[in-house]
Design brief:
Length: 307
């Protein structure tokens, strides 16, 4: 990957950061940007990236990615429980740390970086790989964030479906259907969809910058455990994924996608889910800040390792 491209992504983060610090935007804009990206620009970004000719080889590789993805989440879930047991974590700290170890920022950062790495094919594969994230973040993730409550609040089936069956998931299903059936969307519509979808990267990166601008850096250095989890999230997990997948013979995008997406910082929705279930959203925000900031240095390292 061209170093200038990764630098460009983080310059976008800094623009969002400075815009918030200079009070050009208010805190309220986060919700608007989040809704715009998650409901419109990201789904179109995914859908347009999945518009290319059908191939049996690609179909086989997507099947492999789905399997790798679910095995990955099984592995990091086990790792999160082992970490919590070894360090004797309790209550909300245990919940938030486990969530961060399991779920990374595959949407706001993962997709843009994969597009820069491998273009539309990289986005196509990343979208397929992230099917498990869409399901698990609103099932396993909700369980982890809500279990601390005495009554252990449960979502209704309808609430779970609203989160799991989100616009991005529909975009993957529709895009994959068009791929399998070789359905081509008229250029008039595709051009419009692409124009909207391409705004995902700048909006997502500036969104992260705005979040970072709202957290006081001095509050981060007092808790060493935050940096331990950050190290696991940003370096230990992607290195383990790389060594295991490389060891079993995977290469190309089948190797790159799981490694790169596992190297992303804490999921952007960590604080949102924590707040929704009355968990420690301040700790969640700190982890988003630290992992996102440190990822400026760790992501290039991981990209260099995988070549």
């Amino acid at each position: 990957m061209d170093p200038n491209k990764i630098i460009s992504l983080f310059l976008l983060i800094m623009i969002g950061y400075m815009a918030k610090k200079a009070r050009f935007v208010s805190s309220d804009i986060k919700g608007h940007i989040s809704n715009l990206v998650l409901n419109i620009t990201l789904p179109l970004y995914i859908f347009t990236a999945m518009q290319f000719e059908f191939s049996t080889d690609v179909l086989k590789e997507t099947g492999t990615l789905v399997l790798v993805s679910f095995l990955f989440y099984a592995g990091v879930t086990l790792l999160s429980y082992l970490y919590a047991k070894v360090f004797k974590l309790k209550d909300t700290k245990k919940d938030v740390f486990q969530y961060v170890i399991i779920f990374s920022n595959v949407g706001y950062m993962g997709y843009p970086i994969m597009f820069e790495l491998a273009g539309e094919k990289g986005m196509f594969y990343a979208a397929i790989y992230n099917l498990s994230f869409n399901v698990l973040t609103w099932t396993l993730g909700v369980y982890i964030m809500s279990r601390h409550k005495n009554s252990l609040e449960k979502q209704t089936l309808g609430e779970k479906l609203v989160h799991v069956l989100n616009p991005s998931l529909f975009a993957v299903i529709l895009g994959f259907t068009c791929f399998v059936l070789s359905i081509r969307i008229p250029e008039l519509f595709m051009g419009t969809f692409k124009s909207i979808g391409q705004t995902t990267t700048p909006l997502s990166m500036m969104f992260i910058g705005i979040i970072l601008a709202e957290i006081k850096a001095k509050d981060m250095v007092s808790d060493i455990s935050i940096f331990i989890v950050a190290g696991i999230r940003l370096l230990a997990i992607p290195m383990l994924v790389f060594l295991i997948l490389k060891g079993i013979g995977l290469e190309g995008l089948l190797l790159t996608i799981p490694v790169v997406l596992s190297a992303m910082p804490a999921a952007a929705n960590t604080a949102v889910v924590a707040s929704r279930y009355e968990n420690d959203y301040q700790l969640a925000s700190k982890l988003i800040f630290v992992t996102t900031l440190l990822s400026i240095g760790t992501i290039p390292i991981i990209l260099k390792i995988i070549g």
